[in-house]
Amino acid sequence: MWNLSFTPPEIIEAKVLTTMPADLRRAGPNAWGEANKPGQPVDSFLEGPVFDSLGNLYVTDIPSGRILCITPRLDWRVVAEYDGWPNGMAMHADGSLWIADYRRGILRLDPAAGRVEPVLAHRNSESFKGVNDLVFDAKGSLYFTDQGQTGLHDPTGRVYRLGQDGRLDLLLANVPSPNGIALDSSGHVLFVAVTRGNQVWRAPIMRDGSLTKVAAFQNFFGTSGPDGLAATAQGGLVVAHASLGAAFVLNAAGEVTHLVRSPGGKTVTNLVFRPGSNTLVMTESSTGAILEAQLPAAGPGQASFK
Length: 306
Prior knowledge:
By secondary structure, the protein is mostly beta strands. The protein has one helix spanning about 30-35; strands at about 10-15, 15-20, 45-50, 55-60, 65-70, 75-80, 85-90, 95-100, 105-110, 115-120, 120-125, 125, 130-135, 140-145, 155-160, 170-175, 180-185, 190-195, 200-205, 215-220, 225-230, 235-240, 245-250, 255-260, 270-275, 280-285, 290-295. The protein has a single domain (about 10-295), classed as TolB, C-terminal domain (Neuraminidase), CATH 2.120.10. Helix content is about 0%, strand content about 50%.
């Protein structure tokens, strides 16, 4: 049951905005592809879309350890390349890009200089399982997921908060594959995509910063599960699904109101709203494409803090 009206979601057809140029693709075996997509050719795997104030779109290319920039004219260029597996990204108020890197933890990138530097590589000398995605709140605290290879067989994935004072709080430690992460438009509710549990969890944030009454907001199906998340201005959520070739639009009650369908490729991994608009931009990783669709719900815009 998708919604209480017992009607199917309205279909929105996404279109291809741009595709990674052939000269940027990396053919041949790579360690990330062999571990995560065995037997499949992987010349790229796009994730982590985020816009800057000039309308440039930044994405990660995980197996090649690259951060790419796509200009408003749809020109592609490599901003940084380093020894890592970058996944989710978030824009800091100072203009730097913060990266959740599976191998290296939380990193910071200066887009102008192309310089990558570490922010947080471990917790109390213990390595992370493999961080995946991140989001800033309005005060500048960073929430991020530590997914690794966890799943229903090993429900020990973690969710952390890094405060501006450097304090690191472990908020959840029992998640079977925490992936995408988002705050609702009020900033008082945390959503976590639980990929291998095929759910999205909803976690109210208390005044002391702890989480309570964590519950399943919506259940899905498929060979993979929910990946990236984007909050809407109306208290809802858009959920990228990594095996169903679509994104699901949820209202504040968790009902599925719309299905944003990929025109090609089933691996819709992550998404972001163009700031101040109802235009949804998605990464389709199996084809190396950037997709775009117009939604009835608008995005809340990027976090702004001091």
